[in-house]
Amino acid sequence: MSLDPQARRFLDKFARVEIPPVDQIPLSDLRAMVTPIPGKPDHVAGHDHRFIPGPDPEVELPVRIYWPTRNEDVPNASPWPVMVYFHGGGWVVGNLEAYDSLCRKLANAGQCVVVSVDYRLAPEHQFPTAAEDAHAAAVWVAENAAELDVDPNRLIVAGDSAGGNLAAACCLMARDRQSVEIAHQVLIYPVTDHNFDRPSYIENAEGYMLTRHSMQWFWEQYVPSSHDRSHAYASPMRAESLAGLPAAFVVSAEFDPLRDEGEAYARRLEASGVPVELTRCHGQIHGFLRWTDKFDAARDMVEQIGQCVQSIGEDDNSLSIAS
Asked: What is the pTM assigned to this prediction?
């Protein structure tokens, strides 16, 4: 299919800014470029900024917790499902403020509590720091379910791009360590493999926001060791087995370098006996979900994710591909 007209307008406006490649921008400036979405944020019933224990005793992780505005059409809301969300940004940029708008929308759409995690960033904190932070946050949420008014049996991990990588790694770590029961994983155009030779990396190498060069640079910041890039917690696609992982909702974008690895991971999950729903968003680019003010597809996808969260617990062992 052709590029969505809204995506084309967005890219045209972005191109006029003439931003240098990521490796030519000072790190502090690069991080400052990731800003909150304009507009009035959605109302939620409550939100709280806290510091929770990290994977090591001396580490505290900032989180922002959102309680949804009650939808009277959704029965038995409390205790709520809970979504632990990991933001995108190549493991290098991104923060709680930049994802505030999206997390509010996800809380209300899913009728769930969302715990947004400010994991530590590379290159200051390299692999496996962010993955360990993600796992520690999921464990903390499960252990504090009663205080948060959430159902530990409906715990979801979710994330976009590098955050999708962390969500997938968190599920592998939870299975391997038998540390926390995760009911579902929501992987939005996730990074799943250190491989820049898939067709989508060639077809979409330039011109669609995320570039092949940018992803190579992001990998160098987070996982500088070539040996570590094959580790399952860095490249979930390379895990020896995906059996026993939580059911998954996987989203890909047609004009995205990461398209093929996300879809390949979904198919490998399905082949391992994991229930999967895979949705390719035709005409869309990497990162579209955060821009709900500009993309109809982003608003539609938020609603689809919300429906997925609300349906957790229903049996569905099929893989479906939607547009």
From this structure: 0.96
CA separation (Å) from 294 to 6, 17, 37, 291, 314?
7, 17, 10, 6, 33
Question: What would the DSSP string read from start to end of 69-131?
Answer: PP-TTSSS-SSEEEEEEE--STTTS--TTTTHHHHHHHHHHHTSEEEEE-PPPTTTS-TTHHH
Average pLDDT, the chain: 95
Is-catalytic flag, 296? no
**Count: domains in the chain:** 1
* pLDDT tens column, 166-208: 999 999 999 999 999 999 999 999 999 999 999 999 999 999 9
Query: Is 87 annotated as catalytic?
Result: no
Tell me which residue has tokens 């960033």.
Answer: 121
Write out the residue range of the structural domain in which residue 42 sits: 5-322
Q: What does the alpha-carbon distance between residue 204 and residue 252 come to, in Å, rounded to a whole number?
A: 13
Which CATH number is 53's domain given? 3.40.50.1820
Catalytic residue among 101, 161, 235, 252: 161
pLDDT at 315: 53
